[in-house]
Specification:
Elements (H helix, E strand, L loop, with lengths): L10 E3 L2 E3 L6 E5 L6 E6 L3 H18 L4 H29 L4 H21 L6 E3 L6 E9 L2 E5 L7 H12 L3 E5 L5 H14 L6 E3 L4 H10 L5 E5 L2 H12 L4 E5 L4 E5 L5 H13 L9 E7 H17 L18 H17 L2 E4 L18 E4 L16 E7 L2 H9 L3 E2 L1 E5 L3 H10 L4 E4 L15 E2 L11 H6 E9 L18
Helix pairs in contact: 1-6, 2-3, 2-5, 3-4, 8-9
The chain binds 2-aminohexanedioic acid.
Length: about 500
């Protein structure tokens, strides 16, 4: 990759590339080897205000562009993503650290979303329904809302912006986008391509900088009626509180503490593959990662030994090298947090089966690498089985039977993803009914959601909304019900209706 090094990047506001008004900057640094990726504006409230004003003005015209035309711009964006897929994938292995196959998947998820939402431009269905009165026509339509503040995380630096911005745009909203400070260049590339696809100026704006300055201003800004955030539970609570003043629409996608259940009758080889992929893929840095494995007693010993052996075969390294299985974690504080949970697990009396340490050999010391870590004999109430670690650490919990497995799986505050490995169709269906989560997988791990189904979770994972799928449209539109009376006379609903048969 041609690294940009100390090249300075800018905000994009009202169709112009501009510095932060205070002139401050921050660097994006690779978690893989410490190389500098680029220098970005460390913006403040003034920059947010300018971007919001631009987006607010652009909304008046963009909302009138026919939705199929808006969809065609997204289609073109999807094509540009395909052309740029290799470059974006390579950049992602450097800026975010995930391995090449997964980085390609991240870009692919945005391509899928672009095509899906492009098609939505010709649907955006409402309802037509009969009226209780003669010569009257009733329907409901989706209306765009206005300026959307999109605050995105670093773990899916291309996919998650697409989940938020593409449905927002096809519905006729305009956007102010604040990407994570760990992956600003991927955020900037995303916006460059949207611009190239033909979005009018002001429709999408990017303002780089921290959550405290940029994010908070967006959340409190009176002219930003919709906030969509993927982040931590703590940030979600703060965003909801601060957005309450203006009664904003707030969409939150927060944490997970997802479990894979393995019953005695499961295909163990398949289960091990599913666990490895879900626990250690993306170095465990997915909201959907499997940080708990709930195993029925009859399968426990065999599963433990197969899983530990397989985890020890995983090769840590740079994401851009073909034979790397697990890349770095995002930064130093993440590495420290992950390691602190290893100490917590040991103190709680869980058995450290493998990993549990920072990896340093073969040049890895220049980045932030943590060995895939598995704890055995974990009790469901231990902190390592309750709190989101967001790293390559998973906890094996032994249970007696199916009912206990479901109870343990549900015994957490989050409710994002869930999974069960079993060959018993009855138990699989009971799990589909009883697991308290927004997503349930049967005979697959906890990761791998597709863009045309709703994505999100129950309980503390969010606030009841979903992104992706048709559900995303509900976040970015308001319903309007329309009544057209063509009788030429005053007809009073509930009063001038036809006679009912007497009871
Ligand atoms: C996330 O971790 O926030 O299902 C998103 C998956 C991916 C998306 C994860 N398609 O794991």
């Amino acid at each position: 990759m041609a690294l940009t090094g100390t090249r300075r990047f800018q905000n994009y506001i009202d169709g112009e590339w501009v510095d932060a008004s205070n002139g401050d900057t921050f660097e994006s640094v690779s978690p893989a080897n410490g190389e500098t990726i680029g220098v970005f504006p460390k913006s403040g409230a003034e920059d947010v205000d300018r971007a919001v004003a631009a987006a607010k003005a652009a909304f008046e015209e963009w909302r009138l562009v026919p939705a199929p035309k808006r969809g065609e711009i997204l289609f073109r964006f999807g094509q540009l993503l395909i052309e740029q897929k290799d470059d974006l994938t390579d950049l992602m292995t450097h800026e975010m650290g995930k391995v090449k196959a997964e980085a390609g998947g991240d870009v692919q998820e945005a391509i899928d979303m672009a095509y899906y939402m492009a098609g939505e431009g010709r649907r955006l269905f409402g309802q037509t329904t009969p009226s209780e009165l003669r010569d009257k026509f009733n329907m409901s339509v989706r209306m765009p809302i206005g300026v959307v503040g999109a605050i995105t995380p670093w773990n899916f630096p291309i996919a998650i912006p697409s989940w938020k911005m593409l449905p927002a745009l096809v519905c006729g909203n305009t956007v102010v986008f604040k990407p994570a400070t760990d992956t600003p260049l991927l955020g900037e590339r995303f916006v460059e391509l949207l611009d190239e696809a033909g979005l009018p100026k002001g429709v999408v704006n990017i303002v780089h900088g921290g959550g405290g300055a940029v994010g908070d201003r967006l959340v409190r800004h009176p002219d930003v009626p919709v906030i969509t955030l993927t982040g931590s539970r703590e940030t979600g609570v703060e965003v909801m509180r601060n957005a309450a003043e203006h009664l904003k629409h707030v969409h939150l996608e927060l944490g997970g503490k997802n479990a894979i259940i393995v019953l005695d009758d499961a295909d163990l080889e398949l289960a091990v593959e599913g666990i490895l992929w879900s626990a250690f893929g993306t170095s465990g840095q997915r909201c959907t990662a499997a940080s708990r494995v709930i195993v029925q007693a009859g399968a426990y010993d065999a599963l433990e030994s197969k899983l530990v052996a397989a985890a020890e075969r995983l090769r840590l390294g740079y994401g851009w090298e073909d034979d790397t299985d697990v890349g770095p974690v995002i930064n130093k504080s993440a590495l420290e947090k992950i390691h602190s949970y290893t100490e917590i697990g040991k103190d709680e009396g869980a058995k450290l089966l493998t990993g549990g340490e920072v990896a340093t050999g073969n040049g890895l010391g220049d980045g932030y690498y943590y060995r895939p870590t598995i704890f055995g004999d974990v009790e469901p109430q231990m902190r390592i089985a309750q709190e989101e670690i967001f790293g390559p650490t998973t906890a094996l919990i032994r249970v007696r039977d199916f009912d206990e497995a479901i109870r343990v799986s549900n015994g957490i505050k989050y409710g994002l993803s869930s999974s069960i490995f079993t060959r018993d169709v009855n138990k699989a269906f009971r799990a589909m009914r009883d697991l308290q989560a927004g997503i349930t997988y049967i005979n697959a791990g906890t990761i791998g959601a597709e863009v045309h189904l709703p994505f999100g979770g129950t309980k503390d994972t969010g606030n009841g909304h979903r992104e992706a799928g048709q559900a995303a449209l509900d976040v970015f539109t308001e319903w309007k019900s329309i009544y057209v009376d063509y009788s030429g006379k005053l007809q009073r609903a509930q009063i001038d209706t036809e006679e009912q048969p007497s009871p």
